Every structure is written in C-alpha cells, then in structure tokens.
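Journal club prep — side note

Before the paper discussion, L.F. wants everyone to see what a predicted structure for a comparable chain looks like in token form. Sequence:
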Amino acid sequence: MSSLTKHLLTTSSHQNSSTTFQSATQTPFLRHAGLSKIPKPLLAKWLSQDRLYALAYVRFAARLLSKIRLEDENNSLAQEDKKHLSWRISVCLIGALQNIQREIEFFEDVNRRYDLGLEKNVEMAPNTKAYIDLFDRIAGPDSELLEGLVVLWATEKCYFEAWRYAASFLSTRQPAGGNNGAGSEDTDGGALRNEFIPNWTNEGFGDFVGKLEALVDELAELDAGKKEMKRCDEVWEEVLRLEERFWPVV
C-alpha cells in the first residue's frame, strides 16, 4: 500500500478534475518569474497577498500545535520521548512558525532593498480569503490533526515545487554584464532572480517539506481510516484549486 502523500500526488496527476498538481505548480506567472519578466507592480501586488497568507499561516500552525498532547512521564522529557510521533510533529510545527517569521521579515527586507512597493494595508483578494478560510476551518475543533498536516504539507509542497519550476527557467536568460550585472535587465530589478527564487528553492526548505511529508505519512498509517482518507483527498484537492488561482494571470 502506498503512503498517503504518494497517493495524493499520484491521484492528482490523472484525476478528471481540471486542477492537477502540475496545473497548480506550473503556471505562466511562474515561467515569467523564472525569466525575470514580472514587473515590480505585479510582483508587489502578489507579494502583498502572499504576506497576508503568511500572517494567517502563523495562526494556522499555532492552532495545529494546540491539537497535540505530549506525553510527559514523571515530568521529564527523556531522549526516547523525542522519538514519539507527537513530539516530532510538535518540533516540526515549531520550526514552521520560526520559518514563517523569518519569511515575513525577509519580505520586508527585500521590499526595502529593491524598492518593490509592497503594501501592508491592502484589500484581501477573494482567493487569499478562501485560503485563510480553509486554514481556519481545518484548524478548528471539527477537524483532526491529520487533515491539518495534510493542508500544511500540501501548501508547502506546492510552493516549493512551483518555485523549482520557476527556477528551471533561470538559466535560459543571462542578464547583461555576466554575474556582476545580474538583475540589470530584469523587470523587477533582480529581486526574483537574486533573492526570492533562491530562498524558495533552497535545500533547507526542501528538507522541511520532506520531513513534513514523512510525518504526514506516519500519522496516516497509524490514524487514518476510510473516512479520514476521504477527507484528506478533499482538502488536498481544495489546496490544489486554491494554489492554481493564487498565481496572477500574465
């Protein structure tokens, strides 16, 4: 029997639905981003929505963390306790919160250095609101931890693979002036090429996605019946639809 995450990735590659993993992670916007053809105003508009998503992610991950009960025998955390699944999930979620804090600070730093015009007090786009509504629903009392972890993994997996797709176009266009001129012909001033794409495709991010994937599979093996699997299928497909619509039209 295949793992839950393999099942989700496999079914999304050939389902009859108009949204697949590929259509959610390989869009014209991402191709243009890899070619450094996203103008600053469009990039800033998208980043403003992504920042709202990131702020909601903080609440989402924290609420998932609150669903976990750690066993603390004799008020001690012995080394073997750290092998327990609940402990490892907690560590992963704490890491996710630390990562997203750095991400929000990173947005603001790159915005300042590249003068992107990122706005903080922007109106929430309908698809951003739909994403946040999903977070709030799945983190609520009527949903199990497994569903929440599937959503968390799905968003991170899509984001990582989407920017890996964008990165595949970087080598097809060399900026004038070689390495010293990197970004000189980029319509965003080089922010995507020099900052965002390397940050969103680095080895550390890939390792985090891999660890989260392993935890989802381990929890599913212990705790997923037919009803839970069906709900995981549904939230996975919902994330794919939201991801596909989250990328601007170019």
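L.F.'s comment for the group: The chain has ten helices and no strands. Keep this in mind when we get to the figures.
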